[in-house]
Write a structure and sequence with these properties.
The protein has 214 residues and is mostly helical. The protein folds into 2 domains: 1-106, Hypothetical protein af1432, CATH 1.10.3210; 124-207, Methane Monooxygenase Hydroxylase, Chain G, domain 1, CATH 1.20.58. It contains 10 helices and no strands. Bound molecules: fe (ii) ion (2 copies).
Length: 214
């Protein structure tokens, strides 16, 4: 597994530091193993799938026409083979990686693939998810929040323009998309933190605001 990790590190060089970099990969691996300790699944398949799931990302960043899940799946058998990973488990790893994108709308057939999807989305939830959202927004010159209507009560939310909108319309909905009960419970707990973060955020930006001094 050391050799697979070191291939993942090499492949992920050049990804933005606060985004889906090696720390994301390592957190997804740890989440996969934690979920698997309760839900079952093959930990060896999960660890390899997690380590390699995003190795196609640097290519997608350069060329948005590339599907990083498909590319990661394509690059993985060679890496696994060279690392001496059990050949009979390689197809299961490739399947989990190829189907890890939630946006593909696929509910994967294997438990390992469902756990990988859960872990990948769990890592963009909660405090870490909020930190990644703000870092990404800053890197793309987006605003923290809409100056007049931060909670989007009188407008369509726009997660591509305001970080807080992304938190409200994407991160807060993540628990409902989890496949396993373990991941759903963790996502709900993270959401409770996120809700209190949003409440405090609104409280702070509203302090001193009022009729006459808006
Ligand atoms: Fe991914
Ligand atoms: Fe990922």
């Amino acid at each position: 597994m050391e050799q697979i990790l070191s291939s993942a590190r090499t492949q992920l060089e050049g990804t933005p530091n606060a985004g889906h970099d090696i720390t994301h990969t390592l957190r997804v691996r740890d989440l996969c193993l934690h979920i698997s300790s309760i839900e079952g699944g093959d930990p060896e398949i999960l660890e390899a799938s997690a380590l390699l799931h995003d190795i196609g990302r640097p290519a997608e960043l350069k060329d948005p026409g590339t599907d990083h899940a498909a590319l990661s799946a394509q690059l993985s058998p060679g890496i696994l083979d060279r690392a001496g990973f059990p050949a009979q488990k390689i197809p299961a790893v490739v399947y989990a990686i190829a189907n890890h994108r939630y946006s593909s709308g696929i509910t994967p057939d294997s438990l390992e693939a469902r756990i990988l999807q859960d872990a990948d989305r769990l890592d963009i939830s909660g405090a870490v998810g909020a930190a990644m959202t703000f870092a990404y927004s800053g890197a793309h010159n987006r605003r923290l929040y809409h100056p007049d209507d931060p909670l989007a009560s009188q407008r369509e939310p726009d997660g591509k323009e305001y970080a807080l909108d992304h938190i409200l319309t994407k991160l807060m909905l993540l628990p409902g998309s989890m496949h396993t009960g373990t991941a759903r419970g963790m996502a709900e707990e993270r959401n409770r933190f996120l809700q209190s973060f949003v409440d405090q955020f609104i409280h702070e930006i509203n302090t001193g605001r009022g009729p006459g001094n808006e």
